[in-house]
Amino acid sequence: MRTLRPGQRAELYVVDVATNERRLVHESSTLLFEAPNWTGDWLIVNGDGNLYRIPVDGGDLEQLELGGVPAVNNDHVVSPDGDTVYVSAEDGHLYAVPLAGGSPRKVSNDRGPEFHHYLHGISPDGRTLAYIGLENRADGNRITNVYTIPAAGGADVQVTDDEYADDGSEYGPDGRWIYFNSERASTTPGHAQLFRIAGDELEQLTFDERVNWFPHPAPDGSMVAYVSFPPGTLGHPEDIDDVRVRLLPSGGGSPRDLATLFGGQGTMNVPSWSPDSTRLAYVAYPVD
Question: Which domain of life, per UniProt (predicted)?
């Protein structure tokens, strides 16, 4: 589990996408929390293998009961009705946890010890989860592809089938497109850009020198938020300077910076839009 460095803080912010005005919701110098989900008037973050919730207007972190689910990581989503949080656990599987309490349910299928599920999205109707399947192959290669699975459990559907580095798969508000980041358009290792896929249709969304990860379509479909790393970054590391939270108009055009910070991994890995598409939540990790 990640921990804070000496002199480091985790800072949870909410930012207005129209004005760029941000508000500090919570900070900690003891708990490294990550990846805010927004559900109703609450934000949900993970830290130290647990899940916590906090009012959007600020307050204390309240630990959520996971009912015996193994330690969770920063890949988690909330159902559209706000009743269930779906989590990726360190045993490589996906679980459904009732937010009001009750017994959790394992969602993912056993695909062998070398296959791990990393959850990033849920369809607008709450019926289907989008995840990244990571396969550690015998030849030493780590292969990632986009998959879906019914939220109630069932057969997996493989959406991409190749050896490009893919991550961050998330449904758009129309339920048709799945947005993700990939290195499929570059010959430079680590140079991820944003894409979306629907069946046999594939569209590239960003075309710049920065390394772009974790696309989050706004609920109203007007724009896509994402995390942008400096050129030459490999993967989505922690504790990087000049990390930017950016907005890309859905109808095309140039991205604009919403925030610049010290962070990266954990800043905005999962859906973090307010339901009305006016605000975003993210985490920065400054060091004194």
Answer: Bacteria
Which of the residues in the chain have pLDDT under 70?
Answer: none
Structure token pair of residue 241: 């300077």
The single-letter DSSP state of residue 8 is B
Give me 46's structure tokens: 């993970």
The predicted-structure confidence for 92-103, as pLDDT tens digits, reads as follows 999 999 999 899
Q: If 0-12 CB within 10 Å is exposed, 13-18 middle and 19+ buried, where does residue 71 land? A: middle
pTM metric for this prediction: 0.97
Q: How far is CA 285 from CA 11, 12, 28, 184, 257, in A?
A: 6, 9, 10, 30, 18
| CB neighbour list of residue 131: distance below 8 Å, 6 or more residues apart | 75, 88, 94, 108, 117, 118, 119, 120, 121, 146, 147, 148, 149, 169
Q: Please name which of 38, 100, 31, 102 lies closest in space to residue 61, comparing C-alpha atoms.
A: 31
Extents of the domains making up the chain: 10-284
The per-residue pLDDT for range 27-79, each reduced to its tens digit, is 999 999 999 999 999 999 999 999 999 999 999 999 999 999 999 999 999 99
CA distance 33 to 51: 9
State both tokens at 178: 């799945």
Q: What does each C-alpha distance from 171 to 123, 130, 150, 264, 285 come to in angstroms? A: 6, 7, 13, 22, 27
Q: Could you tell me which CATH number the domain at 10-284 has?
A: 2.120.10.30
